[in-house]
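Re: [ENG-882] Designed sequences occasionally contain unexpected residues at chain ends

Forwarding the minimal case from QA. Structure tokens:
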């Protein structure tokens, strides 16, 4: 049986890795959201998350155990939701896995944008130009709903937080 890495204490077998990639190609998503947060200096949190929604909890538990990270919640509609949003876990577990085992559908592009976003937010404290870059990258990922915040909305939040900070020093 082939495994991912000798360094990994819990390697994922090639069969299991292939199954996970196919499952995520069909049912998973790589999301980048913007959250308005009053406890953030500029009022905006970039919130990346990898998730899978499914009515069958057992398969999500199995996938979570393969990645050795993330949480499973039960939504109000009877669907279970596996999610990884911890930056360290995304950087060290989820992204390396999907870089090694390639997605085959349009999710491949979403993953590439997701990976670039994780790089940007991991490197340094975000500036307005980083928010714009992330927003514009994210626009290349098609979603079936209206986005909560436009770039203009985010800019107003950023600028008003900047103004508040300058007048309260």
């Amino acid at each position: 049986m082939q495994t991912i890495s000798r360094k990994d204490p819990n390697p994922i077998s090639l069969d299991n890795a292939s199954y996970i990639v196919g499952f995520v190609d069909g049912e998973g998503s790589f999301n980048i959201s913007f959250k308005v947060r009053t406890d953030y200096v500029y009022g905006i949190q970039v919130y990346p998350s990898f998730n899978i929604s499914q009515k069958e909890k057992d398969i999500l538990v199995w996938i979570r155990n393969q990645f050795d990270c993330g949480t499973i919640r039960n939504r109000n509609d009877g669907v279970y939701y596996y999610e990884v949003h911890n930056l360290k876990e995304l950087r060290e577990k989820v992204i390396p896995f999907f870089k090694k085992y390639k997605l085959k559908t349009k999710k491949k592009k979403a993953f590439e944008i997701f990976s670039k976003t994780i790089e940007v937010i991991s490197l340094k404290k975000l500036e307005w130009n980083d928010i714009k870059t992330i927003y514009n990258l994210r626009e290349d990922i098609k979603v079936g709903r209206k986005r909560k915040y436009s770039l203009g909305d985010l800019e107003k939040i950023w600028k008003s937080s900047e103004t508040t900070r300058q007048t309260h020093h």
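QA comment: On inspection the terminal residues look reasonable. Confidence is low (pLDDT under 50) at residues 1-6. Proposing we downgrade this to a documentation issue.
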